Amino acid sequence: MAVTDARNPSLGGTTCGSLLQQLQLIWDEVGESDEERDRVLLQLDQECLDVYKRKVNQASQSKAVLLQALDDSKIELARLVSALGEKAIVRTPEKSSGTIKEQLAAIAPVLEQLDKQKKERIKEFADVQSQIEKICGEIAGTLEPGEQVGTPVVNEDDLSLEKLEDFHSQLQELQKEKSDRLQKVLDYVSMVHDLCTVLGMDFYSSITEVHHSLDDSIDVHSKSISNDTLSKLDKTVVALKDDKMMRLQKLQELAMQLSDLWNLMETPLEERSFFDHVTCNISASVDEVTAPGALALDLIEQAEVEVERLDQLKASKMKEIALKKQAELEDIYASAHIGIDTVAAQEKIMALIDSGNIEPSELIADMDNQIMKAKEEALSRKEILDKVERWMSTCEEESWLEDYNRDENRYSSSRGAHLNLKRAEKARILVNKIPALVDTLVAKTRAWEEDRDLSFMYDGVPLLAMLDEYAMLRHEREEEKRRMRDQKRFSEQLGGEQEALFGSRPSPNRKAVTPRSNGSASNGTPTRRLSLNAHQNGSNGGRSGTKEGKRDNARSAAPVNNVAVAKEDADSYVSSNDQASTSP
Fold first, then answer.
1. Burial of 407 (C-beta count, 10 Å sphere; 0-12/13-18/19+)
2. 69, 84, 117 — which closes off a domain?
3. S-S: 282 plus which of 122, 241, 255, 413, CB 3.0-4.6 Å?
């Protein structure tokens, strides 16, 4: 072994060489043998070799650890880069580019940076995933509004920005769905509120039965948006709408009944105004009824009570109302000169009411229908009736003209004579139009009868028969006038011959008596017969309208009800009037 005197600073100035020298000096002093000396030296060499081997082994193990750490760092770097989806931030050093420790020192900052970024990315993923799970739980109904979810499990093998962006996109869709659901919930709550307001129901109890979070006192974003909540809200709205529809129908039925009863009993407007809040919706649609409490149960009950009260009152006033309707119907028939049996009709109405076999409203409705039909019938007869009135009025003028012509003092200068003269001139014009008027009236009456296959009755007498009778009497009257003119000419001729023979004229006081001296004969003999038949017609139950003097006078001038009189009776009546006209 080589011995050196060099001092090693780490041994405090003592080296292996100096120690060997000291050992040799000791051996010399002792007198140790060479064999012992060689054995000890060989032992020392072996021990030194063992120490070096141990150190080498330790160094190798340390190197292996460093290499494993370097490999692990590279694997971790690759895993982090793959998980984060980032491109390599630092190029992995080659073995030849530096020592192992240098390579580790180069990788360590990159790993530290990527690890920090990983933790931040995991936090972002956890936040997004927790929001997603929370919204999904709220939609599914497994999570109450405001309740927090646990820490979600994040897949650390995929922390890329693309994955994070997918989660963000999913979160945005869920947030939009949550917003839509929340708006739908609010719309439902608003509809429930409006419906409860109209129906007079408690909104708080109705809405909290669906979910306690739907109360107005709870924040909007804390309301339940679950499928179950939306389904219950929809069912609640449908039920309330159905209830609203049924109540509106019930209220409208009551309003119609009230209106009918009011109209039936002629209730004053002041009393009707108390139920304006009921009748105002009589023709409204469901969507138009929005007033608070418009369909409340107490309002409907109030209307029902009023209808019941009016029903009871209606029974006591039914006879009065029915008789009033019957009187109206009779007036319409009377104005149209349609004969009806008023006594029998009234007795029938009273019997129906007393029997209870018909609802009063049905009876009134039937009478209203009769009145409507009577008005239609009167309207269809109006044109003919107007001409009949004109004909009768003209006949009245004709009768007056006959009386006027028989008046020997008509040309005197008495007071009012000029007025009678003017009336006579107008009467002659009207009388000349009678034939054309009668012909027109006959044509229209026949057309009316053909159109309806009915006989046109005038106060119970066929109008055509009246017109035929009048035409016959007028013809007889014209024949009578012609005979009177012939008789007058004969008398004048006879007087002329007597004057020629005897030389004297007859005394004025011995004037020849002519049929004109009797007013009834000069008018075609209808006066007494028409008045007689008018009385007969008035006694057969028909409303003849004899209250008006003008109509009575017209009937006295025209053969209104002369159907029952045979033509032979008319001829005998004319002959008897002829005899009466020749009497002194």
1. exposed
2. 117
3. 255
Instruction: Flag whether 29 is in a domain.
Output: yes
Which residue range forms the structural domain that includes residue 107? 9-117
Given 90, 117, 144, the domain boundary residue is 117
Task: Report if residue 542 sits inside a domain.
Answer: yes
Q: Are 529 and 573 in contact (CB under 8 A)?
A: yes
- What pLDDT shows up at residue 86? 62
- Quote the CA–CA distance of 276 and 298 in Å, as a whole number: 15
Angle 566-572-575 (CA atoms, 0-180°, nearest 5)?
145
Element (H, E) at 242: helix 227-265
Q: Dihedral sign, CA of 307, 312, 314, 318?
A: positive
Q: How far apart are CA 522 and CA 574, in angstroms?
A: 11
Q: Tell me if 389 sits within 8 A of 399, measured CB to CB.
A: no
- pLDDT tens digits along 95-131: 446 788 888 888 888 888 888 888 888 898 899 988 8
Specify the DSSP class assigned to residue 458. E
For residues 309 and 129, give the distance between their C-alpha atoms in angstroms, rounded to a whole number. 69
Q: How far lies 116's CA from each of 64, 87, 525, in Å?
A: 28, 16, 137
* 214 close to 226: Cβ distance less than 8 angstroms: no
pLDDT at 240: 92
Establish if 326 belongs to a structural domain.
Answer: no
Cα 138 from Cα 146, distance rounded (Å): 9
* pLDDT of 397: 83
Specify the number of domains making up the chain.
Answer: 2
CA torsion, points 390, 391, 397, 402, in degrees to nearest 10? 170
Q: What is the pTM of this model?
A: 0.49
The one-character DSSP state at 294 is T
Structure tokens at 584: 């002194």
pLDDT at 526: 37
Please work out, in degrees rounded to the nearest 5, the angle formed at the alpha carbon of residue 302 by the alpha carbons of 297 and 307: 125
Give a yes or no: residue 427 inside a domain. yes
Bridge partners of residue 462, in order along the sequence:
457
204 φ/ψ angles, rounded to the nearest 5 degrees: -60, -50
Q: Is the dihedral of CA 372, 377, 379, 382 positive or negative?
A: negative
- Which phi and psi (to 5°) does residue 289 adopt? -90, 105
